[in-house]
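[job 0417] fold request received: Core-2/I-branching beta-1,6-N-acetylglucosaminyltransferase family protein
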Amino acid sequence: MTDEELFWRASLVPKKVDFPFNRVLKVAFMFLARGPLPFAPLWERFLKGHEGLYSIYLHTQPGYKLNVSESSPFYGRQIPSEEVSWGSISLIDAEKRLLANALLDFSNERFVLLSESCIPVFDFPTIYKYLTESDYSFVESYDEDSPRGRGRYSKSMYPEIQLYQWRKGSEWFELNRDLAVNIIADYKYYLLFSKYCKPSCYPDEHYISTYLNMFHGSQNANRSLTWVNWSFGGPHPASYGRENITEDFIQTIRNNGTICTYNNKPSTYCFLFARKFSPSALEPLLNLSSSVMKF
Ligand SMILES: *[C@@H]1O[C@H](CO)[C@@H](O)[C@H](O)[C@H]1NC(C)=O
Ligand SMILES: *[C@@H]1O[C@H](CO)[C@@H](O)[C@H](O)[C@H]1NC(C)=O
Ligand SMILES: *[C@@H]1O[C@H](CO)[C@@H](O)[C@H](O)[C@H]1NC(C)=O
Ligand SMILES: *[C@@H]1O[C@H](CO)[C@@H](O)[C@H](O)[C@H]1NC(C)=O
Ligand SMILES: *[C@@H]1O[C@H](CO)[C@@H](O)[C@H](O)[C@H]1NC(C)=O
Ligand SMILES: *[C@@H]1O[C@H](CO)[C@@H](O)[C@H](O)[C@H]1NC(C)=O
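[job 0417] inference complete; emitting structure tokens
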């Protein structure tokens, strides 16, 4: 299918509310990666025993063939992919391709976007419950009055998008099915971003957060579930390798004393995933996954 055919098909919504089968909700883990998945062994351990409650989708650079054994949950999960270049609209295209493929499975209810450098910091049952019982989706969305926030708005988007509606947020989203369908179905606002959001405007940091703010804000928690450390400054966040992985560090990501809101109540569980980790972090992470992350 072309993207156009795929997005159309994925945007179809059943009118009949009762499913003619026992619908067990699934979480779609959607990996947007260049190629290899260095943390596949950690994800495999995380997913083990929970078959039927999740689906995996993998978008890579075209031509890349993931080499995993047939018993891996990643086996045969690559979707038809196109070239992606950092900071361009092609990144949104890839995200939509992942969403659309995942929407074709009617059991998928929650949609998590991940990269090859992301890891889970809780066990599967905790993450599954947190997502499937949430009244909100998790897409970071904030108004920043700075050159890197409102400064990236283009007047050419007026009047369809106005400055006060403009938002910024992390690319790494978590969406419910309804929002995923709406994003796949949108063409009008997507087109404005593809025309007028070019460096130093980055569609992946603005399109979904602005679009949701305009039409579906009440369904959004406006925060990301993916922990990241930006305090280094610069265009890329801190990356953690072998020498940085300690029990304390992972515990800090799981709970650093910060209180966030979950279903309108205070919660200390604010992040379920974390980035960025370099491949050398795999071994120490596997060593402490059972004691710290409980899987
Ligand atoms: C795939 O992985 C297996 C096992 O690690 C290895 O023996 C094989 O050479 C790999 N194949 C390719 C095409 O890289
Ligand atoms: C998130 O922001 C929207 C505005 O876009 C607002 O309507 C909504 O109440 C906020 N969500 C929460 C949980 O505060
Ligand atoms: C985040 O990065 C800053 C700057 O390198 C560092 O001081 C801080 O300890 C890091 N935070 C965590 C939780 O690792
Ligand atoms: C990781 O550890 C190295 C060596 O101790 C240190 O130089 C580096 O700043 C650490 N990285 C982060 C992101 O904390
Ligand atoms: C906890 O983590 C959040 C997100 O990284 C950060 O904003 C906050 O400052 C941290 N709090 C403490 C007490 O370190
Ligand atoms: C992981 O555990 C193995 C076996 O206990 C040990 O040999 C190895 O040094 C550990 N690696 C790290 C990075 O802690």
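[job 0417] notes: The mean pLDDT is 97. Residues 254 and 271 are 6 Å apart (CA to CA).
[job 0417] exit 0
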